[in-house]
Amino acid sequence: MNKEQLHKYIENSTGNESNICQIYAIKDGSVVYDDCWHGFKTEDAMNVNSVTKGVMGLLAGIALDKGYIRNLDQKVMDFFPDYNVKRGEKTIYDVTIRHLLTMTAPYKGKSEPWKKVCTSQDFTLAILDYLGGRNGITGEFRYATLGIQILAGIIERATGEKCIDFANKNLFEPLGLPKRIPHGDSSKDDLLILSILCVFSLLLL
Q: Rounded distance, CA 202 to CA 205, Å?
């Protein structure tokens, strides 16, 4: 299938492919494929949703390298001395940054309580209400976005900067990438240009 055939296939698709807005591929340091659909252009920012998890992992590594974070086994609660732990909750004191990064942090409940979190005054402190639980730390993998928001809070507490400002100064701008502008609160920002994601992928490789 050549580029024209792929473009037409996605353009006419009524299945999952109909959600595709951009494809941008790099091979051996050169752009080998760049195409867009639904009125999008290459430089348009997209809501990248869970890709933000990888970006937050990079920011945590930068904060560690710069000494804002002692080590990955530093306790989450070290950064939130003002948080009032719920009565009877003990597990939360043992949760570390490593648990957040590897998605082995324990949470109460089976689903992520985003309605309660997003209507709160402070996303991070609201999420801490759900961190921990009676089962303790089991090492079980649990895919959760909650931990990424806690990481954003840790970076802000550790550096004294908004997470988006820390990202611009220490990640985006040093790479020559456009400065990101938050939509609303900086810790909720998750818009990125697809070509930027390719740069991140090459860095991680």
A: 5
Report the DSSP pairing between strands 45-47 and 30-36: unpaired
Which range marks the domain in which residue 184 is found?
Answer: 48-188
Report pLDDT digits (tens) over 7-27: 999 999 999 888 888 888 888
Pair 95, 166 in one domain: yes
Residue 157, amino acid: R
Any domain includes 70: yes
Mean pLDDT of 68-84: 97
CA-wise closest residue to 56 among 101, 98, 107: 101
